[in-house]
Design brief:
21 helices, 549 residues, Rossmann fold, alpha/beta, binds adenosine-5'-diphosphate, binds magnesium ion
Length: 549
């Protein structure tokens, strides 16, 4: 085992990373740090989550001249989020050094950036477009740069930044040290390396080290149309502290987040359609735990460093095994264990085998929990919680309430039973969705197609959610209040059940949209809901309810 000290880092930096909990260098760090300390150009190839930032930041910090007046280091990153992440890392690793780091990206006002640059900055981290702006305005002088880093180069390539990068490279001294990091090395990136780097040393981290042993990989075989049902069932039993669901399309992320939320599992989407600030806000909330589940596309989640993800879900199987590795690598970081769950349809089984061959790691088949198992699990959790509270024993007021009821002649066990029942009311929000037997062969394919047709029936008025319910025996209704009016699923169940006088359990899926809400009601009761003469009310707001079809 190599240590950070053996790589040539000075004691102060070793101390800092040790304090951060880095027990030993990651493979990419072990390869890159000595080369960069020696001033060599480096071509580093490794997947997300392998510790590339420290691989370049630590040697740069060590070589920094703290008395210089000009910018010495430039890091170019594809997005604002990634730039901020790198800047934070520099602060973190250099916290005992008094370094000045400036992050620059589009959409920010120029003034503060210009002022900082005048005052003096050691490290600039920025996105290509804004860097070029600042160069053109003659406020960013790169002539004294000693080290230049291109982070996530393939991502910058796919975002169309190659020309910009060449412009930036040509603004710097040919004497500089250049390090390029990328998950993949497509031809244009190699050309860039050939054209602008001096005898770059390649450090490549082999794939098989990518999936970490600390990740439990499982798959569930389900019909396409049962995926959502399977996911919600897994959500019931998996101890998710922070979950990342990958969906193939941008639209898919929004729809899935909505569906999950409507079924009692709050989730939010992260995709390229969102504005920078909306994405940032969502990420921040995910990072500090206010959002527990994020539904993202590969592109949106790319390179983002979010620790402590307990579960990664592949709602769709990725086309490319490398993408699978990428996704799954988001969990099980920094010595923690993680769970990676993949939903696959019968047609996709062969692709799963390809992935296993590629990663050389088994993905175990598991069974979706049955209704019975979920019920048992729910009950067990209630009991566990009761036991905790019994131990705590701080329910004096409640005890007085019980005694009041007992004085009225009620039986203590009966009171307790009713209280437990009341505590479980929210479970109604999470109906256990039926799952059909897995369809294999021709039959499965045909049925799969039929479903997709139904589910894809989009209608602009309803934010792209299908109007007819997916469930048999349920009728989809629409309420003219939504998220913007502060509507919550609980309100809908309570109001409809009470004011239409129907049993709460006949109310199914609830999809709260911005300005309206879709709600499924058992077909036997839908007529009764629509027949009510008086207006429905939630608090002081009245609303109408109609057939969504
Ligand atoms: P990459 O750029 O390769 O995607 P990052 O540099 O963002 O990876 O690092 C991923 C995570 O691993 C970060 O949370 C970082 O703090 C952590 N990390 C980096 N190096 C080590 C190490 N040697 N030991 C433990 N954790 C590390
Ligand atoms: Mg990175």
């Amino acid at each position: 085992m190599t240590t950070f000290t053996e790589l040539g880092l000075r004691p102060q930096l070793v101390q800092t990373v040790t304090a951060l909990g880095y027990a030993e260098p990651t493979p990419i760090q072990a390869g890159v740090i000595p080369l960069m300390l020696a001033g060599r150009d480096v071509l580093g190839q490794a997947q997300t989550g392998t510790g590339k930032t420290a691989a370049f930041a630590l040697p740069i910090l060590q070589n920094l001249d703290l008395n210089a007046y000009q910018v010495q280091t430039l890091v170019v990153a594809p997005t604002r989020e990634l730039a901020q992440q790198v800047a934070r890392a520099f602060q973190k690793y250099g916290r005992d050094m008094n370094i000045r780091v400036l992050t620059v990206y589009g959409g920010q006002s120029y003034e503060p950036q210009i002022r900082s640059l005048r005052r003096g900055v050691d490290v600039v981290v920025g996105t290509p477009g804004r860097l070029i702006d600042l160069i053109r305005r003659n406020v960013l002088d790169l002539s004294a740069i000693t080290t230049l880093v291109l982070d996530e180069a393939d991502e910058m390539l796919s975002m169309g930044f190659i020309k910009d990068i060449e412009t930036i490279l040509s603004e710097t001294s040919a004497e500089r040290q250049t390090a390029l990091f990328s998950a993949t090395l497509p031809r244009p990136i190699r050309r860039l390396a050939d054209g602008y780097m001096r005898k770059p040393q390649a450090v490549t981290i082999q794939r098989k080290q990518l999936t970490v042993a600390a990740i439990a990989q499982r798959y569930y075989l389900v019909n396409q149309r049962d995926k959502l049902a399977a996911l919600t069932r897994l959500f019931e039993v998996e101890p998710i502290t922070r979950g990342l669901i990958f969906a193939r399309t941008r639209v898919g992320t929004g729809e899935l987040a909505n569906e999950l939320t409507g079924r009692g599992f709050p989730a939010e989407a992260l995709n390229g359609d969102m504005s920078q600030s909306a994405r940032e806000q969502t990420l921040r909330r995910f990072r500090d735990g206010r959002i527990k589940v994020l539904v993202a596309t590969d592109v949106a989640a790319r390179g983002l460093d979010i620790d402590d993800i307990s579960h990664v879900f592949n709602y769709d199987l990725p086309q490319d095994p490398e993408v699978y590795v990428h996704r799954v690598g988001r969990t099980g970081r920094a010595g923690k264990t993680g769970v990676a769950i993949t939903l696959i349809t019968p047609k996709e089984e062969y692709r799963l085998r390809q992935i296993q061959k590629y990663t050389r790691q088994p993905i175990a088949r598991a069974q979706v929990p049955t209704e019975e198992e979920i019920r048992e699990h729910r009950e067990m959790k209630v009991l566990e919680e009761v036991l905790v509270w019994l131990k705590r024993g701080r329910a004096k007021r409640e005890r007085q309430m019980v005694e009041l009821l007992m004085a009225e002649g009620y039986d203590a066990a009966e009171i307790a039973a009713v209280a437990l029942k009341m505590s479980r009311r929210h479970e109604k929000q999470r109906p256990i969705m039926p799952i059909g037997p897995v369809q294999t062969g021709r039959q499965g394919r045909d049925r799969g197609k039929g479903y997709k047709k139904g589910a894809g029936k989009h209608n602009g008025r309803y934010d792209g959610v299908s109007r007819s319910s997916h469930e048999s025996g349920m009728v989809r209704l629409v309420i003219n209040l939504g998220r913007e009016h502060g509507l919550r699923p609980n309100d809908v169940v309570g109001t409809l059940a009470y004011q239409a006088n129907i049993p709460g359990k006949t109310i199914g899926k609830i999809l709260i949209q911005d300005r309206h809400t879709l709600v499924d009601v058992n077909e036997a009761y839908a007529g009764q809901v629509l027949a009510r003469k008086e207006p429905y009310r939630i608090g002081r707001k009245s609303f109408t309810i109609d057939l969504a079809a």
